[in-house]
Specification:
- The chain is built from ten helices and ten strands.
- The protein is an alpha/beta fold and 269 residues long.
- Strands 6-7-8-3-9-10 form a six-stranded mixed β-sheet, sandwiched between helices.
- A hairpin with a 4-residue loop joins strand 9 and strand 10.
- The structure holds adenosine-5'-diphosphate (ADP) and magnesium ion (MG).
- Magnesium ion binds next to helix 1.
- It holds the Pfam family ABC_tran.
- This is ABC transporter ATP-binding protein.
- One of its GO terms (molecular function) is ATP binding.
- It comes from Protaetiibacter mangrovi.
């Protein structure tokens, strides 16, 4: 089983997307006038302060919630259709593994739910375990794995149906810095190998810059896109990149966009 062939080279297209949550205290405008295009195979991070609507935007793309206004398409289809066609995989901060299932059975779950035969499933699970470096751990249970390994299982599971789009909401947020950097490197490799586009939510500036082709900066109340920064860092994402001037330059650019410090500094002079 494979996600259907894309009908457009845009993985995500959001036009004038808004989201209002009605609450007892009145309406909360979580997102307003969001314009976003993610090309096939592109890695885009959404960054912004807590509460700016990053998760909300990702949930709209994933069809876990509906936009109040505007239009949203995934590979040219309505989000609902894309969900049914398994055009995207999802991974969140909590790995969300089933504790009574082995690593292999967790990775294969989406395939099982879609009635993929055992032989095909086993072959695909083996392939995915290798992709995320867990071949020797397929018979373990989640509580026998470190947090980083659990997150790798979640990533493998999200890739099971060969989606051309991966939606990730702070997937490394609960991990220590070393593991986090390691998995960032792994993720760029996996994204390149699978050719999947990625929309990655984070509030870490270095993480966003290291991973992305473009960093989308959001501001709160109501959440909107205020800046888009092309990293232009090329194909190779390795440890040397983290110490390169080009990388620091982009980290600074994103930080300034996020804090609006450029304007403040100009005024100080
Ligand atoms: N189901 C909901 N009901 C009411 N308000 C919500 C709901 N979900 C999110 N919000 C509000 O929408 C805003 C954006 O939330 P969220 O997308 O979770 O932000 P982020 O992921 O950037 O931290 C916040 O003000 C949040 O309180
Ligand atoms: Mg969030």
């Amino acid at each position: 089983m494979t996600a259907t062939t894309p009908t457009t080279d845009l993985a995500v297209q959001a036009t004038g997307v808004g989201k209002v949550f009605p609450t007892k205290a009145g309406d909360v405008a979580a997102l307003t006038e969001v314009e976003l295009e993610v090309k096939a195979g592109e890695f885009v991070s959404l960054i912004g302060p807590s509460g700016c609507g990053k998760s909300t935007l990702l949930r709209l793309i994933a069809d876990l919630d509906q936009a109040s206004s505007g239009e949203l398409t995934i590979f040219g289809k309505p989000a609902r259709r894309a969900r049914i066609d398994q055009d995207y995989g999802i991974a969140f901060q909590q790995a969300g593994l089933l504790p009574w299932r082995t690593v292999a059975a967790n990775i294969g779950l989406p395939l099982e739910l879609h009635k993929v035969g055992k032989a095909e499933r086993d072959a695909r699970v083996a392939e995915l375990a290798e992709l995320v470096g867990l071949t020797d751990f397929v018979d373990r249970y989640p509580d026998q794995l470190s947090g980083g390994m659990q997150q790798r299982v979640a990533i493998a599971r999200s890739l099971a149906a060969r989606p051309k789009l991966l939606l990730m909401d702070e997937p490394f947020g609960a991990l220590d810095e070393m593991t986090r950097e390691y998995l960032q490197g792994e993720l760029t490799r996996i994204a390149a190998e699978t050719g999947a586009a990625v929309v990655f939510v984070t509030h870490s500036i270095p993480e966003a810059v290291f991973l992305s082709d473009r960093v989308v900066v959001m501001s709160p109340r109501p959440g909107r896109i205020t800046d888009v920064i092309e990293t232009g860092l090329g194909e190779v994402r390795d440890e040397a990149l983290r110490e390169s001037p080009a990388y620091f330059e982009k980290v600074t650019a994103v930080r300034e966009a996020l804090h609006g410090t450029k304007v403040e500094r100009a005024n100080e002079r």
